[in-house]
Design brief:
alpha+beta, four-stranded antiparallel beta sheet, 8 helices, 13% strand, globular
């Protein structure tokens, strides 16, 4: 079983294919932005210092290589933990040196916007069972569904028809991509780290894993596609966070110090 007691009652989330399609249609025109938000607080000195530490983007590979460098820097410098506070500003994540997968993806978005690369997010409602391997003895406390903000980056020269690069395809053409086992959401590796070595497919169509690597199709865990939003702030403002404020207040101090995967 999964828990619904700790989830907010106000929800604009659809259940089933028809509701998911309707919700996605209403936000499909999200054009993204390079502007700061409350979460992506680009002007904060810690965020600016992080961008400066990454140095000038290399000419070879351009924006994509700059994003890959930022991903590696965040993976090495921000320790993965089980944080549930989606509204935490990137500057605070950098101050503590720890963050959830979602918070570290927000840091990657902040770097992108600071580099002039527009970002947006795709809202996905993911079944709580996806996180069962992380909490083998606490299934009853895992939320029934989790709101996931999946970043996309606007790269005009990428393809004629679709300039948006999902974070799952950031390392798609590197030698390491697709060479390992698919992501299983168990063990010390988190979803953020896994992006650099294996495909992550929420659609059962966008990407494919090598036959020797097993399936990377995670679409069975998706309950609804909420469509695209100009920022993760806009997504959470409309659909709320996974847990209600009281649950976040009680659980965050404990989870935010627990290393992900252990």
């Amino acid at each position: 079983m999964t828990s619904t007691l700790l989830m907010p009652h106000r929800r604009g989330r659809g259940r089933g294919h028809r509701a998911a399609t309707a919700s996605a249609t209403t936000t499909s025109t999200a054009s993204g932005s390079i502007a700061p938000t409350r979460i992506l607080d680009l002007a904060h000195p810690r965020v600016r210092a992080a961008v400066d530490a990454l140095g000038t983007p290399p000419p070879a590979g351009g924006a994509v290589e700059a994003l890959r460098r930022a991903h590696r820097w965040i993976a090495a410098g921000v320790r993965p933990v089980y944080s549930i506070e989606e509204g935490r500003p990137v500057s605070e994540v950098l101050r503590t040196g720890r963050g959830s997968c979602s918070q570290r993806m927000a840091a990657l978005e902040a770097v992108a916007r600071s580099r002039g690369i527009p970002t947006r997010v795709r809202g996905l409602v993911v079944d709580g069972t996806f996180w069962y391997p992380r909490f083998p003895r606490l299934h009853a406390l895992v939320p029934a569904q989790v709101v996931l903000a999946w970043p996309e980056f606007h790269l005009p020269g990428r393809t004629p028809d679709d300039p948006w690069l999902p974070v799952s395809e950031l390392f798609a053409d590197t030698p390491a991509a697709g060479t390992g086992t698919p992501f299983t959401n168990s063990g010390p590796e988190t979803l953020f780290e896994a992006l650099s070595r294996t495909a992550v497919d929420w659609d059962a169509a966008r990407s494919a894993c090598p036959a020797t690597a097993g399936s990377c199709d995670l679409s069975a865990h998706v309950r609804a596609d909420l469509g695209h939003f100009d920022s993760r702030d806009a997504l959470f403002a409309r659909h709320g966070q996974t847990l209600c404020p009281a649950a976040r207040l009680l659980a965050e101090p404990v989870l935010s110090h627990r290393a992900a995967g252990f």
